[in-house]
Amino acid sequence: MSARTAVVWTPEFLTYQLSDDHPLNPVRLDLMMELSRELGVLDGVELIEPAPATDEELTRVHTPGFQTAVRSAPEAPFGVGHGLGTSDNPIFFGMHEAAALIAGGSVRAAREIHEGRADRAVNMAGGLHHAMPDRAAGFCVYNDCSVAISWLLEQGYERIAYVDVDVHHGDGVQTSFYDDPRVMTISMHQHPLTLWPGTGWPGELGRGDGEGYAVNVALPPGTGDAGWLRAFHAIVPGLLRSFQPQVLVTECGADTHAEDPLANLELSVDGHRAIYLALRDLAETTAGGKWLVLGGGGYALFRVVPRSWTHLQAVALDRDVAPETSIPAGWTARAARHTRAPLPVAMSDGADASYEPWEDGGGDRVDSTIRDTRRAVFPLHGLDPDDPRD
User: Fold this and answer.
1) Strand partners, 211
2) With b meaning 16 or more CB within 10 Å and e meaning fewer, what string describes 52-66?
3) Taking a C-beta distance cutoff of 8 angstroms, is the pair 19, 135 a contact?
4) In whole angstroms, what is the distance from residue 228 CA to residue 267 CA?
5) Record's Gene3D superfamilies (predicted)?
6) How far apart are CA 287 and CA 159, in angstroms?
7) Distance spanning both ends of the chain, measured CA to CA
C-alpha cells in the first residue's frame, strides 16, 4: 500500500438509495468494499469517515433554492420541482443528508491531498457528475465532483484536470466550470446521439476565458477496449502534459462495460483495469502524483462494478490485483444472497486490453472521433491535431 493514499468510506454512504428498484443500487458499493477486503486490498488501511458537506461547500456549486428544495422534498405534498420526484431522481427520506454526506466525502478526500496527508485519495461513493446548480439529474442530487473541485479552487489551486471515463457525458461538471480556465474537463462517453444526456459534442469547447478547457470525446456505440484505449491515449495524455494540472480528479464510472444494461459500449473489466493504470500513470507524470479518485455510474451490480472498482481501489493503493486472481468463495456467497444471476469466478473477463496507437489517417469510426476532438481542441493549446506525437 502506498503510505500516501487515503480511502474515504462510511457504511452511511449506502443510505443514498433512490428507491428499492432504482438502477443506482448501493449494493454495488457494499459488494465492492467486501471484495476489496476479501482480496486484501484494504489490509491495514484506516478508512476515513467523512462529515456531510456544509451549506457553504454546497453553495459553491448549488443554489440555495435548490438546497432548500432537496431538504424539503420528502415532506412536500405537491412536489418541489428542480428535477426531484422524477423516475430518475425519486424523492426519498434523508435525501439531503445522504447526498451531502457523499459530497462531504469527496471534499474530505480533496482535503487529505491539500493538507499533505495523502498524494491520492479515494471516494468510491462519489462521482455524481450530472447534478446541475439548480436541479437534480441522472440519479445525482448534489454534484460531489464539482463541490470537491470548487473547494480546491477556494484553497488557491489554479490548474485542476477532471477526466471522466463514465459512459455518460460529464455534463454537470462541464457546466460548473464551462467558463473557467483553471479547470480542464475531459469527458470520454458514448456519442450524444445515442445516449442520455445528449450532450458532449466535440464542439462544446468552453466559453470565454474557458474556451478550449472543455474537451469531449464522443465514442460510437460498440466501441470496445482497443478503440476506447486508442482514443484515450490519442487525446488525454497530450492535453494533460500541456495543462500540467496540480491535481488530477477522475470520475471512474464502470458503465462502459459490455454487460451494463443502460448503455452500449463494449469494454471489459480488463479494459477498465488498463484505464485505471493509465490514469495512475498520468497522475504521476503530469500532476505531481496528486490524484483524487471518484466512482460514478455502473449498473451491472454483481458481475461488473465490484470487480472493476476493486481493481480501481487496488491501483490507487499500489496493490494491483492480477487479472487471473480468483474470486473468494466468501464474496460469492455474500453476492448470491442478492441475485440468482451467474457470478464471476475471476477478476478478469479474459479479454485482451491491448490497443494500436492512433495515427492520423485511420478510417474507422473511433479514428473519426479522435480527429474531431483533436482538431477542435488541440490548436487552442498549441498542439498539432494531426501529429500523433502531440
Assistant:
1) none
2) bbeeebbbbbbeeeb
3) no
4) 8
5) Histone deacetylase domain
6) 9
7) 33
Kind and range of the H or E run holding 218:
strand 214-219
Helix (H, G, I), strand (E, B) or coil at 33: helix
The CATH code that applies to domain 5-381 is: 3.40.800.20
Tell me how many degrees the CA angle 313-319-323 measures, rounded to the nearest 5.
85
- In order, the DSSP letters of 197-249 are T----TT---SGGGTT-EEEEEEPTT-BHHHHHHHHHHHHHHHHHHH--SEEE
Which amino acid would we find at residue 131?
A: A
3-class SS at 160? strand
Q: Which residues of 200-225 are buried (b: 16+ CB within 10 A; e: fewer)?
A: bbbebbbeeebebbbbbbbbbeebbb
Euclidean distance between CA atoms 224 and 218, whole angstroms: 14
DSSP string, 302-335: TTTHHHHHHHHHHHHTT-PPPTTPBPPHHHHHHH
Task: Convert the pLDDT of each residue in 41-78 to its tens digit.
Answer: 999 999 999 999 999 999 999 999 999 999 999 998 67
**pLDDT one-digit tens code per residue, 198-250:** 999 999 999 999 999 999 999 999 999 999 999 999 999 999 999 999 999 99
Q: Indicate which residue of 114, 130, 169, 272 is catalytic.
A: 130
State the Rg of the chain over Cα. Answer: 19
Grid coordinates given for 242: 500541456
Alpha-carbon span 124 to 114, nearest angstrom: 19
- The amino acid at residue 229 is L
360 pLDDT tier (thresholds 50, 70, 90): confident
Q: How many other CB atoms are found less than 10 A from the CB of residue 26? A: 18
State the Cα angle at 264 between 252 and 231, rounded to 5°: 60
Give the angle 150-218-369 at the CA atoms, nearest 5°: 130
Peptide bond into 357 cis (omega under 30): no
187: CB partners within 8 A, 6+ apart: 164, 166, 169, 170, 173, 174, 200, 215, 216, 217
Rounded to whole angstroms, the Cα distance separating 382 from 179 reads 19
Q: Which neighbouring-strand residues pair with 292? A: 121, 249
168 catalytic residue (yes or no): no
160-164 and 214-219: which strand pairing? Answer: unpaired
